[in-house]
Amino acid sequence: MNFAYDAMYGAGRNIISSLLPNAVLLHCDNNPGFNEVAPEPIHRNLKEFSKLIKNSDIDCGLATDGDADRIGLYDSEGNFVDAHHIILLLIHYLVKYKNWNGKIVTAFSCSVKVAQICEHYNLDHEIVKIGFKHIAGKMITEDVLLGGEESGGIATKGHIPERDGLWMGLTLFEFMAKSGKKLNDLINEVYEIVGSFAFERIDLHLDNAQKLNIIDNCKNNYYQSFGKYKVQRVETIDGFKFFFDENKWLMIRPSGTEPVLRTYSEAETQEIALDILKSTQDTILK
């Protein structure tokens, strides 16, 4: 199998070249300014990598952030695979293929499909506040198989109780190599268990008064619907997650690290997930 790696000029740039000398490498040279691109492994920062994969005979592409603790992933067609799908793939591999077990711990912003695959495999599942410290603490004190967050920080049993994008990428490469299957075939195995889904996030740059007003409205149950999407229930572990049914939800949460209001959505298709976010903006910004 052929793999590619984009280090984003970060700390992982020498590791993959040592372990996988035949891998196709991008941005593995020294550039303290990161070529003026934020070293966050999300699609908008990885379009050059996506194009490289599309134009090459690559089975899977791995990207990591500046300190190589978060993962970005691409299939053989140059399509971005988000952290929610990665978490599900890892659970599927570790439980079904490697016969491991243990508790699953995920951050509040992760997909509801995690709970569904845990139910399928009879695994305990706990949802915690956003911030990997909440996951790491559980991994130190409990028998945790996997801990993960929406931003691409993931850890597994048998390694350190901390995020490691390189380890997760190598584990997925191992999954493909040992199964002899393409990444999309493995994703389809997951879909056979939990159904297909899409996740989207839009960060809204608002002034402090606007953010406080929206959060107050959330606290006071002001939002009963977002356009045609009627709220069925709300969870408030860390932010506000509005469920429209068991597979469609919206989350509103102020960032703890940036001056933005984060909006997240999950639905059966990307079109619906984006429509939820558009309806959200129409509702909260009017």
**Corresponding CATH architecture of the largest domain:** 3-Layer(aba) Sandwich
Structural class: alpha/beta
- How do the strands line up in the largest sheet? 2-1-3-4-5
**Strand count, sense and closure of the main sheet?**
5 strands, mixed
Shape summary: globular
Order of helices and strands: EHEHEEEHEHEHEEHHEHEEEEEEH
Helix content: 25-40%
CATH topology of the largest domain: the name is: Alpha-D-Glucose-1,6-Bisphosphate, Chain A, domain 3
Report the end-to-end length measured between terminal Cα atoms: 51 Å
Number of helices: 9
Low-confidence stretches: none
Instruction: Output the CATH class name of the largest domain.
Output: Alpha Beta
Radius of gyration: 19 Å
In short:
This protein is an alpha/beta fold. It has helices spanning 15-19, 47-54, 83-97, 113-120, 132-141, 165-179, 183-194, 208-219, 270-284, and strands at 3-6, 24-26, 60-64, 71-74, 80-81, 103-107, 125-128, 144-148, 154-156, 198-204, 225-226, 229-230, 233-235, 240-245, 248-254, 261-267. A hairpin with a 2-residue loop joins strand 11 (225-226) and strand 12.
Explain what you see:
The chain is α/β, with parallel strands linked by helices and 286 residues long. 35% of the residues lie in helices and 24% in strands. It contains nine helices and 16 strands. It has helices spanning 15-19, 47-54, 83-97, 113-120, 132-141, 165-179, 183-194, 208-219, 270-284, and strands spanning 3-6, 24-26, 60-64, 71-74, 80-81, 103-107, 125-128, 144-148, 154-156, 198-204, 225-226, 229-230, 233-235, 240-245, 248-254, 261-267. The chain has a five-stranded mixed sheet, sandwiched between helices. Strand 15 and strand 16 (261-267) form a beta hairpin. The protein is globular and about 55 Å long.
